[in-house]
Amino acid sequence: MSLNTTIYPPRNGIKCYLFLGRRALKPIMLFTINLKAMKKIFLILPICFLFFANGCKDDENENPLIGNKWKLVGFVDDQTGIIREPQPNNCKECYLLFFNTNDAFSGHSSTNTLYGTYSANSSSHTIQFTEIGGTKINELYDGREFVNSLSNVVSFTLSIEELKLFYNDNLYLLFNPYLP
After folding, report:
1. What distances in angstroms separate CA 108 from CA 20, 98, 121, 136, one per listed residue?
2. CA 163, CA 151: separation in Å to the nearest integer?
3. How many CA atoms lie within 13 A of 31 on its CB side?
4. How far does Cα 100 stand from its chain's mean position?
């Protein structure tokens, strides 16, 4: 005895029948699929998914820094307009900053791996690196200035192309998105 399934396409849907043996005396209907109903489901399902996937977000508490990795372009004096490139300037893994979560960050200085916590308020554009830790190799080049500047940061501005971390009235760290 063998089991065969056959699909007959009627006008308004698909009916699936099960035939037992080579000659089926009486087909047994397994299920019917209504094509009009399926079209409606496939149109409504993505809309429902988008609605529930977004959920109820509180825009005030969203942190636009999360998930972004930044590479230091330079130490900027806003008063003179001078941008001093960090040294060494040929190091791909130096002077990186990554905002992991609402309060945790990681990164690299000239020689050390950095990690710690921060607090940011996106509506007032304030930020403070509350704890900065990492490996303890003596900093070379501009590594010490980078870490010291991070610990003095008080505010930020953010766009798609750049992040500015202000650590003095006229001084800030200028970052571009990191593209490995």
Report:
1. 69, 9, 24, 12
2. 16
3. 3
4. 9
Residue with tokens 């849907």, as numbered in its chain: 13
Determine the 3-state secondary structure of 40 from DSSP.
helix
Helix (H, G, I), strand (E, B) or coil at 39: helix
Q: In degrees rounded to 5, what are phi and psi of residue 140?
A: -115, 160
Mention every residue, 6+ apart, whose C-beta is less than 8 A from residue 110: 86, 87, 88, 91, 94, 95, 139, 140, 141, 142, 143, 146
Task: Read off the pLDDT of residues 19-70 as tens digits, 9 standing for 90 and up.
Answer: 555 555 555 555 566 666 666 666 676 665 665 655 554 444 477 888 889 9
Instruction: Say what the pTM is.
Output: 0.64
